[in-house]
Structures are given as C-alpha cells and as structure tokens.
Specification:
With 81 residues, this protein is α+β, with helices and mostly antiparallel strands. The protein is built from three helices and five strands; from the N terminus they run H-H-E-E-E-H-E-E. The chain has a three-stranded mixed β-sheet with strand order 1-4-5, with no helix packed on it. The protein is globular and about 40 Å long. The two termini are 20 Å apart. 7% of the residues are buried.
C-alpha cells in the first residue's frame, strides 16, 4: 500500500484525479486453513497511520466489512489526528 501511495496514487492525485481506496475486510485463509481477518480497530489504526504519512494523496477511504456492509472511514476528523 505504501508503494502505491508513494507512486501511482500520488501521481494520480497530482494530475487532478480523485483518489478513493476501497478496503475489503474479507476473510482470507492461508495454506494451513487458518482464517486471517483484521479487526475494525486494527484497520482504523493502519488507515490513520497511512493517511498521516501520505497526507493529501487520498480523498476517501471506504471499508467493505466481512458482512458486506460499507462504511466511510475517511474523511472523518478522528482519522486526521
């Protein structure tokens, strides 16, 4: 994600394109069948860090939760602090 924010997405933003990230919170299984699913708090922490480190690149961040519901994570004031 960081290489995208430093490269392709940053260049898109610089050329005037709106940048929206859609994050899927869908279960993934590794080779041994273990289910890996990041919780909402973890996702918020990572998104907050990325937005702070790459300020001005992303216009919106949306999360599609494991149950198929969508929630806008950014812009929200709490993620910018």
């Amino acid at each position: 994600m960081e290489s995208k924010l430093d490269g392709q997405l940053k260049r898109a933003k610089e050329s005037g394109i709106q940048v929206l990230l859609l994050l899927d919170q869908l279960p993934e299984r590794d080779g041994d069948g273990t289910l890996w699913l990041a919780g909402g708090d973890t996702i918020l922490l990572v998104v907050k860090r990325l937005l702070n480190e790459h300020s001005g690149v992303v216009d919106q961040v949306w999360l599609r939760s494991a149950n198929g519901e969508y929630a806008r994570l950014f812009p929200e004031r709490s993620l910018l602090q």
